[in-house]
Amino acid sequence: MKIKILYFYFILLPLAFADLKVGFYASSCPKAESIVKKVVQNRFNRDKSITAALLRMHFHDCAVRGCDASILINSTKANTAEKEAGANGSVRGYDLIDEAKKTLEAACPSTVSCADIITLATRDAVALSGGPQYDVPTGRRDGLVSNIDDVNIPGPNTPVSVTSQFFASKGITTQEMVTLFGAHTVGVAHCSFFDGRLSGAKPDPTMDPALNAKLVKLCSSRGDPATPLDQKSSFVFDNEFYEQILAKKGVLLIDQQLALDATTKGFVSDFAANGDKFQKGFANAIVKMGEIDVLVGNQGEIRRKCSVFNRN
User: Fold this and answer.
1) What family name appears in the similarity comment (predicted)?
2) Which end of the chain is less enclosed by CB atoms within 10 A, N or C?
């Protein structure tokens, strides 16, 4: 009996300290990554903007409790989840994650985490948009908590210094932060995120006058229209974003300030001048971001449905 107790003890112990690894599902669900890739490919063929949506979802998930798919949870009468936070109001792509999960559950029940699906789907979408092709380690587990009060993500008007501090608290360096902002090369922003910079009487001096005039006209229309953050190649994952903000064509205040702040402008110039350096740097930075406070081994759970905890 003692031998059996010791045997199980040593088998279970490493699970709590398991690491992420490339090809985690090679044995348990060999087609996992190809299933996710097919779902993303099908969506991308219809909607090129899905890349920006998934990048935003991935960051907004990892930036709160770590990359644990807590952003996917629906609210209940007893709990208001992260999804309801103002910062997450424009996050979309939930249906794509649900579609991939449904297919994976049919192929490999209770095996592939929702957190890994987000990470893999983002990787595939970036590559489809012309971005770097990179391997991502998998083995994440899904979290058991999702609370609106935990969401405290820097906004578009947050100073560079404060934004840098936030990233640093997650283990992301200033250079890596600037690299991750390069995801805005395929993003859009609604007028409500930048209309404070627009004024016919006293326009923001850090914004190109022609762009200012264009955005004033756009935002004077009904509703809350959107404009590309990269005004030149909005669906291509390239380094054009950095060239744009160097030319004072940053739509969001935080984007423009990256090209002006002493701690970040050097990195902006480097990436604007060297697209390959940006692509390689982005791949490394987003892989690192995807490892923030992950749950592994026997932590958390593998949700059967991404929007609902298993225990419910």
Assistant:
1) Belongs to the peroxidase family. Classical plant (class III) peroxidase subfamily.
2) N
The residue annotated as part of the active site, out of 37, 58, 60, 141, is 60
Q: How far is CA 126 from the centre of its chain?
A: 11
If asked whether residues 71 and 146 sit together in one domain, one would say yes
**DSSP β-ladder status, 226-228 and 188-190:** antiparallel
Count of domains forming the chain: 2
Known catalytic residue at 190: no
Task: Tell me the angle at which helices 50-62 and 275-289 cross, rounded to the nearest 10 degrees.
Answer: 50
61 is in an annotated binding site: yes
Answer yes or no: is 66 a known binding residue: yes
Maximum separation of any 2 CA atoms in the chain, in Å: 83
Q: Is the pLDDT of residue 131 over 70?
A: yes
68 known member of a binding site: yes
Q: Evaluate if residue 10 carries a pLDDT over 50.
A: no
Q: Are residues 139 and 178 in the same domain?
A: no
Residues 137 and 182 in one domain: no
Q: How many CA atoms lie within 13 A of 269 on its CB side?
A: 7
Confidence of residue 221 (pLDDT cuts 50, 70, 90): confident
